Amino acid sequence: MRDQVSKEFKYSYWKYREASKVNKRKMLGLSMLIVAGFISVLFFAEWWFREEHINSLPLYLVLTFIFWWGIFRMVILWVSYIKITKPAPVPASEDLRVAIFTTSSPGEPLSMFEKTLEACAKITYPHTTYLLDDTRDPRFRETAEKHGAVWLELVGFPGAKAGKINAALQRTTEDFILVLDPDHIPFPNFLDEVLGFFKDKKVGYVQVAQAYYNQYRSFTARGAAEQTYGFYGPTQMALEGINCAVAIGANCTFRRKALESIGGHGIGLAEDMVTAIRIHSRGWRSVYNPVVVSRGLVPEDLGSFCKQQLKWARGVHEVLFAELPKLWKHLSGWQRLSYFTIGTYYSSGFTMFLFLIIPYLFLWFGWLPANMEFSSFVINWTPLAIFGLAIYLYVQNWLCHREEERGLHWRGMVLKFACWPVFLMGFVLAIFNRDIPYIPTAKQAVKGFTPFVRPLFLFAFLFLGTIIYILISRKFYTAEAGLFLTSGEIWGMVAFATIAFIMTIMGIYAAWESRNLSAEEPWKYIEVNKIDISGKHHKTKERKEVTSV
Amino acid sequence: MKTIFFRIFLVLTAIVVGIAIFMLISYAGDKSKGPFEDFLTSINLGIASMENDLVAREDRRSKDLEWFDRYRNSPAVLNTADTIFYGIYDDRSSTSFENIVRVEDSLDMHLPIISFYTAWGSKKEQQFPAIKAQAIYQLGSMPMITWEPWLDDFDPAEFPQIAQKMNNNEEGLQLISNGVFDPYIVKWALAAKKFRHPLFLRFGHEMNDPYRYPWGPHNNAPEDYIAAWKHVVTKFREVGASNVVWMWSPHIAYENAREYYPGHEYVDWIGLTTLNYGTVAPWSKWWTFDEVFEKGYNEFSQYDKPIMISEFGSLEVGGDRAQWYADALSSLPEQYPAVKALIYFHAAGDNTTTYKVLDWSFVDDEEVVEAIKSSIQK
Question: Residue A264 maps to which CATH number?
């Protein structure tokens, strides 16, 4: 799985990339699929909502919720795809005053900052880089100064990095601030790709894609990266089209006035989203530019990934419950819908839990939520699945690094599945307004079996225990007179439960693999001098044709 | 202006092509529905058979019914039966025959025939009931299927000839003999053939009762019934479904039954329904078994076919139920020697005849159980 080539500087990663342009022909094709997708939804609904399908009403409602919540989210995404936009590039004005903020915390490896700060120094647009440091380690200051960055010691501020950012805002005067996560290595043209958009005085922040360079390190890393490809391609481009582009903290460039208008960077577990929604509520516009002008790290071991997800799950629910209602009347209709949809992303932990227990309710207690003929279900659901998949693949046209990122992303699905207990926990913590301690995402893989894998083991044992129970009861206790007639439904349900079991095993595999990850510093292979932004120049001509439909 | 037209054109194109590709997929889905269902059924049969073999209990029911094997494996032997086969229909047997086993335990005998009902139509449960038939065979019994030609449950997309008709049941038997439903019949016949073992097929029963089923005299003439019967049997013979034993089953309370007889070459068994409703309804009274059965028996025993009492039972209200069963069963061999099989009609929730639910079951009625046990000469 791990290719040896990756252990050196991977040229294809360190090239400027951008999502392909949006044109009428592509949009026409997409619209056709979306129309077909809509009809498939209606077709499925007509079949699903039939009275004859109700067996136990409460369970039927639960099942309906599971299915239709997912379909509802998918349909919203489809609708927003119609608005997919790639903003026409605007050359940056000269003489803008720009700051780059990057933060360091105790425990973060110094060698990584060497690369990041070196790359920051190579950014061509004139700027000042600030290292917001609370490590109390003099070597960080030395490194910063070696690369011409300004070292600011900011110890004891609240929040993860937001506290430090706000403090640094007080001490600096630049009009534009790029907040760069320290694991992200920026390309020399980074600022050229974003600053032009600020010519529009209403633009509050400009976000670019997040891409990674350590996917090769593990199953978890690849899966985690796969989960983001669509988001930083077609999804954010669609959000751009409806002025809802989400700020992701890392790689987001803010207008100082926009940050000041909301009293500084938001603080919390989902600081970036809090900041984005507040800036939107003040009437600022946002821009999403689908270009790869930096690459960073994605969690390599399942434990770090789960920690990150738990943090986001809890934080995003905070946005849903605390920010969204408060700012509701200041947001546009699309912004409300979009923040609601993002805010409820982690609800899949809850629906997945319900989905998982269905076969067990049947196998242990004989409860069946619906009287649906399996074959009818398949026949009626298949068009929806086909068009859902077709749209998913079609919009991969707009991935930022198409050759590398396209595909079915099954690892991403496995990982999302494996995280259902984490999502559920985030959801429950948010409901009861309980805190989780701040856990920084590990920059380097951590050895050992993560506690996050325990629910997966539990679930695997539940499955195996159920199989043993079924085998024993079928062999010795099921009445002969009922054996043959019930065989199909029992083993059919077991087959259904097996799908989730296989996903669970793959999740456990990811955790097991995480144990054996060699500690490595993936940034040490990066050669900042070899970052290739020539793609930029080739495309200058085409740029003029870029339209938004 | 030009751009507006162009945009409208694009939107319309997207909608039209979108609908077209959906239709294509949906058409493919419709076409593959049947084969897909058959595929699932064959998987289900395979898994159930495999499980059945693996479980292989020592005390399996089929061991006690081994004596019946020579009958249930050969239509010829079955049709020249030298004994009486008992069977049962129980309406609580959709997921398990445990209720039938309960009846068997109370009667202290195994019942070689298990009867059930199924309707015509396009739905999955209206195809040949392969799993149920096989389940009955695995238990050592032989299935008897009453096959009811309700014609209003066919998918018009599949049968375009009936799409315009308001009521398929009106003169519906002509539709059958005209071949409108041949694809359905042939598919059913092939699946029945695949079952391999003999099964009783009681098609269009009680066809002479003007108050009950849509294939009755109020919708069809007797010659239409005969033509439809011959057509169905011919279709089965054409595909080689020779394991099907044809049972013609009129309602003997009406004197016109013989007008519906399709002829000796098309009938293997004659099934006569003998139910005593007692005094549950204004139109009914307490009839003895002989009163219900004798006249019909005398008429149809002359046809030289084995006779089955295809629905046999008495309700409780209006007389001595145990006595009714005792009289009936003890009179069979001497008085009615042509009777070679009898099916207990053991429906606890029969709502087909009156506005209230009728309970024909006797498993909890000790007197009846005792009467049956003592009347049957083993």
Answer: 3.90.550.10
